[in-house]
Design a protein that fits this description.
The structure holds 2 protein chains of 2 kinds. Chain A contains 1 helix and 29 strands. In chain A, the strands form 8 sheets. Chain A has a 4-stranded antiparallel β-sheet, with no helix packed on it. Chain A is mainly beta. By secondary structure, chain B is an alpha+beta fold. Chain B is 15% helix and 39% strand. Chain B has 1 helix and 10 strands, in the order αββββββββββ. Chain B has one helix at 2-26, and strands at 43-47, 53-58, 79-85, 91-98, 104-109, 114-120, 126-131, 137-143, 146-153, 156-159. In chain B, strands 1-2-3-4-5-6-7-8-9-10 form a 10-stranded antiparallel β-sheet, with no helix packed on it. Chain B starts with a helix and ends with a strand. The chains are: A mainly beta, B alpha+beta.
Chain lengths: 324, 163
């Protein structure tokens, strides 16, 4: 009982000395220039309906068509620019600002490896048949890893120096350089003669056709005969007038942000917030896909060729059925 | 005697404790009034209601980004000042000084590229450049060596000030 007053005295003294000083902290953050809403990439991880998205603030999410919301697979706390997926080993590859190319176990949602590069890579190119992952960094240096052999690096042919890997079609990786493209056969290590291209490469198909974007114009090239099949622009800018819920079409062709193609059609997205489809053989305009409320930043076509998915810079994600 | 001393101490401590608790309770909503203070910071970010960064004051400013991809300004190309971003987070304007040579810039950008550059160099040369598409441009400037107003319109070069 005698100890009680002493205990109280000590306790009050501690509170008096330690507790009287009020600590005030201000929440701070870095200068990031980040739009946390913006999707930076989208890829299918099944034949259709299921996709992965990446965001500027470092989250990878899984979305399933018809279901509200999404599942956060992992938060890398780093900017993510591009995704690729290995469906056999269920591994996600993500190119980031500060962590190089991050390898993620999709089942356990864990980072299993970091593939270092000097500066960030805009685009990842993955070929699941040959297990080669390619990335071209902001310094213009390309990297190639064999994912089935402990991510060992493969040297690229000299002709591909200062060129960027942009897309893959079967065994052919298409590299983009200043006004030229080259095709590299992963199996034979052969590099094609330069193909004259204006703008940047967006997609390629198994017939050797290359789709490129040059500001507000896209072109389909037949790389076998090094000639342009056709060039097209979005014919107008469909402006959504929210107050009247109508579309006003301004006669302006705006910058194209992305282009993809399947067996029959070409799909182009733009700063004008629309996607247009075009007949791949004739170049004839086919349809408008309207509904996004911000610049469309990425698109992907499902492996079964029947679905298109698109994401924008304000958190919009849309699936489009391609029964055209 | 000892018991009495303990009771006095206990009473004093109880009052002190009540006083501290009252102080904490009365100051639970702390309002920082910095209106009379000078703040020294490396950066300031203004976000909109959705969290998109719309104004950044910083030194140095982060590398620019376009449609979900960041660009490198290059070696010794850092800038400091004010940047404005649109609702999609795209860089649209800057009022900056560079961290090396000593230029001061004011820029206005489209959603994809710079279209207006107003610049003064450290030795005093001042210039205004405007870009359209397809090579169209207009350049206006003045320096110790003279003045110029020239440009390109639909492939035709012109110079409005003849030497």
């Amino acid at each position: 009982m005698k100890l009680f007053p002493k205990f109280i005295f000590i306790l009050v003294s501690i509170i008096s000395f330690a507790g009287c000083k009020q600590e005030v902290s201000i929440k701070t953050s870095g200068l990031t220039e980040i739009n946390p809403l913006s999707y930076t990439d989208v890829i299918f991880i099944s034949s259709s309906d299921t996709v992965l998205t990446s965001t500027f603030d470092g989250k990878i999410r899984k979305h399933i068509k018809g279901r509200d919301g999404s599942e956060v697979i992992i938060d890398l706390s780093d900017e993510i620019y591009s995704l690729a997926y290995d469906p056999i080993n269920r591994v996600i590859f993500a190119s980031t600002l500060s962590s190089g190319v991050v390898v993620i176990d999709a089942e356990r949602s864990e980072v299993v490896r970091n593939l270092p590069i000097k500066k960030w890579a805009k685009k990842l190119v993955y070929n699941p048949e040959s297990n080669y992952l390619l990335a071209s960094d902001a310094m213009g240096q390309s990297h190639c890893w064999n994912t089935s052999k402990g991510y060992s690096k493969r040297e690229l042919p000299d002709q591909l120096s200062e060129m960027s890997a942009k897309t893959v079609s079967e065994d052919l990786v298409i590299f983009d350089g200043p006004s030229i493209a080259r095709k590299w056969n992963i199996r034979t290590n052969e590099v094609s003669q330069p193909i004259s291209i204006s703008g940047r490469i967006a997609d390629a198909d198994k017939d050797g056709n290359i789709l490129s974007i040059d500001y507000n114009e896209f072109a389909l090239y037949n790389s076998e005969i090094d000639s342009v099949i056709f060039k097209k622009k979005h014919p107008d800018w469909p402006i959504h007038v929210a107050s009247q819920d109508t579309i006003f079409r301004a006669p302006v062709s705006m910058y194209l942000s992305e282009a993809k193609m399947n067996n029959e059609f070409i799909f182009t997205s733009s700063v004008d917030r629309s996607i247009r489809s075009w007949n791949k053989k004739s170049g004839e305009w086919k349809d408008d896909f309207l509904g996004h409320r911000a610049t469309i930043s990425a698109m992907d076509i499902s492996p079964n060729q029947n679905q298109l998915v698109s994401v924008d810079l304000k958190g919009g994600l849309r699936f489009w059925e391609l029964n055209l | 005697m000892k018991s009495q001393l303990s009771q006095i101490l206990l009473l004093i401590n109880t009052f002190v404790l009540i006083g501290i608790l009252a102080h904490i309770y009365l100051n639970r909503d702390l309002e920082l009034d910095l209106s009379q203070e000078v703040l020294k910071v490396r950066g300031l970010v203004v976000t909109d209601s959705l969290g998109v960064e719309r104004v950044i004051i910083g030194s140095p400013l982060p590398p620019p980004q376009l449609h979900g991809y960041r660009f490198d300004r290059g070696e010794n190309a850092d800038v400091s000042g004010v940047m404005l971003y649109d609702a999609e987070g795209q860089e649209r304007s800057g009022y900056v000084t560079d961290n090396d040579y000593g230029n001061v810039f004011f820029t206005l950008d489209s959603k994809t590229s710079q279209r207006v550059l107003f610049m003064v160099e450290p030795q005093g040369a001042a210039s205004l450049k405007l870009w359209g598409r397809n090579g169209n441009e207009l350049s206006l400037g003045s320096s110790d060596q003279g003045s110029w107003l020239e440009g390109v319109s639909n492939g035709q070069s012109f110079n409005m000030i003849q030497e």
